[in-house]
Amino acid sequence: MAVASTHTASKSAPAFGIATLIENAKARFARYRMYRQTVNELAGLSDRELADLGLHRSMIRRVAMQAANDHIAQ
């Protein structure tokens, strides 16, 4: 009987795990899209425009990652 109880209890666990997996995938994809959009927009600026923002071209990826993480966390 213990086997049946264990088996029944584990049936609901994968469904919850799949839902969590899907939500995590959605969040990661949204974060990636925000990151790519920010990188593309900043990369399109001239060095002068970046300097006006207080950025150097080498900082674009780090700033984009930070912006994507901050945006999704809100």
From TrEMBL:
<dbReference type="Pfam" id="PF06568">
    <property type="entry name" value="YjiS-like"/>
</dbReference>
<dbReference type="InterPro" id="IPR009506">
    <property type="entry name" value="YjiS-like"/>
</dbReference>
<feature type="domain" description="YjiS-like">
    <location>
        <begin position="27"/>
        <end position="61"/>
    </location>
</feature>
<protein>
    <submittedName>
        <fullName>DUF1127 domain-containing protein</fullName>
    </submittedName>
</protein>
